[in-house]
Request: fold
Amino acid sequence: MKTELLDAVESGSLKSKVPHFEIGDTVDVSCRIKEGAKIRTQIFSGTVIARKGRGVNETFTVRRVIGNEGVERVFPLHSPNVLDIKAIRSGKTRRAKLYFLRQRTGKSVRLGQRHSAHTVSK
Reply:
């Protein structure tokens, strides 16, 4: 009863079209940034290392390395400030959370690429 009521209230705040992306994918996240009276769009690109929550509370964490310094940002999936999410490359993973990438540097940070299944129709 309680969750049904919460889901009904939250359904108005959910985005209708959420792009498909998974853990290990390299994504470009376009987010709206307000600085004083000006509003601009900033693109944060990196690897998705975590995804958690459900409904309005669903978030995903994107990690990238800038100048030998790791930077992680947590984005709410259904936030109006997250304008677009584009999957650039799909990574091959066997884990739900890729926190082990935090200790890695250089080439060992790279994930193998997941290839789509080739379907042959007759």
Summary: The first strand starts at residue 26 and ends at 35. The two ends are 49 Å apart (CA to CA). Residues 2-10 form the longest helix (9 residues).
